Amino acid sequence: VFAAEQDNSWNIYTASIDRKEEPYFFAATVLKTETVVATDAEEFQPAFSPDGKEVAYLENRVTLKVVNLASKQPRTILAADRNYSYADGDQWFDWSPDGRSLLVNFVDHQRWSFEVGLIDAQGKGPVLNLSKSGYEDVHPVWTNGGKAMVWASDRMGLHGTGGAAQQ
């Protein structure tokens, strides 16, 4: 799964092997490309669900969505008002190993900082704030087969006067 700019818009596509006599993706001379999501919005940063049946992606840099590959129906997981993007790639999410939830960065509106949250992959219910630290908490990932989560924080880092801090 990948994002590419086509017809003046970033969209989500999949590529797969098209010829049985070329079984290795890296050496294939012909690939079959299919559109997953193509709208007037900018879609990028796609990631397959663990079972490969869905793709999570960002719409317009800040809305986390999931699209079902069979139905092609997208759903909003984390609304745009919970994120703010300064540059491409500064938003983060990670599928749980069972595909039932995602770890995300989100903006704490009380102090405009990133917190780490857990959210249902169906888009039901609010984001659960896991870090609640009041510091910048970013890039959460699942580990230990889904039994643990880790993320970076500037909580114990050296803090400078310009807002910069070590993580």
Helix run count: 0
Helix and strand sequence: EEEEEEEEEEEEE
The proportion of residues forming helix, as a percent range, comes to under 10%
CA gyration radius, whole angstroms:
18 Å
Largest sheet data: 4 strands, antiparallel
What is the mean predicted local confidence, pLDDT?
Answer: 90
- What structural class is derived from the secondary structure elements? mainly beta
Assembly category: single chain
**Widest beta sheet: strand line-up:** 4-5-6-7
Distance between the termini: 31 Å
Description:
The structure is a single chain. The chain has strands at 2-6, 9-17, 31-37, 43-48, 54-59, 63-68, 74-78, 93-95, 101-108, 113-120, 128-129, 137-143, 148-153. Helix content is 0%, strand content 47%. A four-stranded antiparallel β-sheet has the order 4-5-6-7, with no helix packed on it. Strands 8-9-10-11 form a four-stranded antiparallel β-sheet, with no helix packed on it. By secondary structure, the chain is mostly beta strands.
Summarize the model shown.
25% of the residues are buried.
Task: Please outline the helices and strands.
Elements: E1 2-6, E2 9-17, E3 31-37, E4 43-48, E5 54-59, E6 63-68, E7 74-78, E8 93-95, E9 101-108, E10 113-120, E11 128-129, E12 137-143, E13 148-153
Antiparallel strand pairs: 1-2, 2-3, 4-5, 5-6, 6-7, 8-9, 9-10, 10-11, 12-13
